[in-house]
């Protein structure tokens, strides 16, 4: 009998970015047209990811600021986080950095399994977060103070003149993967959730080796082998899911 490993995934992001739509599309293969602000919903789904059985326990969280007090509770219990913004909302993209900092603070880690998700990629004509090579120095002057502060803390290692997609550049600064999705068109929905499971597995394996070897990691986060964008793509295999 194959062991069924449960993964506690938390979907985080501002209001209206499509967190619930992504989650429901994963669980039910259905797109929800109406926007109904979420307070907190939990979903479970059994999958086979890279030939290993996984039970995904997905927590869909509130994006509205009035529910910010609830965030630390689910951040304490989450094993992996999908940081979701909408490519049609500059504000939602800028909020991602705040969520990432809060997760690391609550976890008391220098690194934790995270994936940055740019949702609504089907709305290309309304894009506010650039897909073309846009320089942070030329295009994101308002954010430079935050970048420099994080850089001094060792939490932001992105080259400000790196001409990449803004989402990818931000993910690189976090040391995590980046993916663009569309809940409406079901583009990369499964991949986003499966990739965070893969990252949890990788992280747990590294931490187990760190503990067994008695190695000394930097800070409280243990090993600092952050994932480079594109790493692990070759491991993406056939994944099957069964709704519980």
TrEMBL record:
Entry's family note: Belongs to the small GTPase superfamily. Ras family.
Record's subcellular location: Cell membrane
Keyword annotations from UniProtKB, A to Z: Cell membrane, GTP-binding, Lipoprotein, Membrane, Methylation, Nucleotide-binding, Prenylation
PANTHER family: RAS, DI-RAS, AND RHEB FAMILY MEMBERS OF SMALL GTPASE SUPERFAMILY (PTHR24070)
Matching Gene3D superfamilies: P-loop containing nucleotide triphosphate hydrolases (3.40.50.300)
Main location: membrane
Keyword field contains Zinc: no
One of the record's GO molecular function terms: GTP binding
Xref: NCBIfam families: small_GTP
Keyword Methyltransferase in annotation: no
Protein name stated in the entry: Ras
Biological processes annotated in GO: signal transduction
Organism superkingdom: Eukaryota
InterPro entries: P-loop_NTPase, Small_GTP-bd, Small_GTPase, Small_GTPase_Ras-type
Topology term for the membrane: Lipid-anchor
Annotated Gene Ontology cellular component terms: plasma membrane
Listed SMART domains: RAB, RAS, RHO
């Amino acid at each position: 009998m194959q062991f069924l490993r449960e993964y506690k995934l938390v979907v985080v992001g501002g209001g209206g970015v499509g967190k619930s739509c992504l989650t429901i599309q994963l669980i039910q293969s259905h797109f929800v047209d109406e926007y109904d602000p979420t307070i907190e919903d939990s979903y479970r789904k059994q999958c086979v990811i890279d030939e290993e059985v996984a039970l995904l326990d997905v927590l869909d969280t509130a994006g509205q600021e009035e529910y910010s007090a609830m965030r630390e509770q689910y951040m304490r219990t989450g094993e992996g986080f999908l940081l979701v913004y909408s490519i049609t909302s500059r504000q939602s993209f800028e909020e991602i950095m705040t969520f990432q900092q809060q997760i690391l603070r609550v976890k008391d880690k220098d690194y934790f399994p995270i994936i940055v998700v740019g949702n609504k990629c089907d709305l290309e004509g309304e894009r506010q977060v650039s897909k073309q090579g846009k320089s942070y120095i030329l295009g994101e002057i308002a954010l430079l103070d935050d970048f420099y502060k994080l850089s001094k803390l060792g939490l932001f290692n992105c080259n400000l003149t790196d001409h990449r997609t803004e989402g990818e550049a931000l993910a690189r600064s976090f040391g995590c993967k980046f993916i663009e999705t569309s809940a409406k068109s079901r583009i990369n929905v499964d991949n986003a959730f499966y990739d965070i499971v893969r990252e949890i597995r990788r992280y747990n394996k590294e931490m187990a080796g760190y503990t067994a070897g008695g190695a000394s990691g930097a800070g409280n986060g243990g090993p600092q082998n952050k994932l480079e964008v594109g790493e692990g793509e070759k491991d993406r295999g056939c994944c099957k899911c069964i709704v519980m």
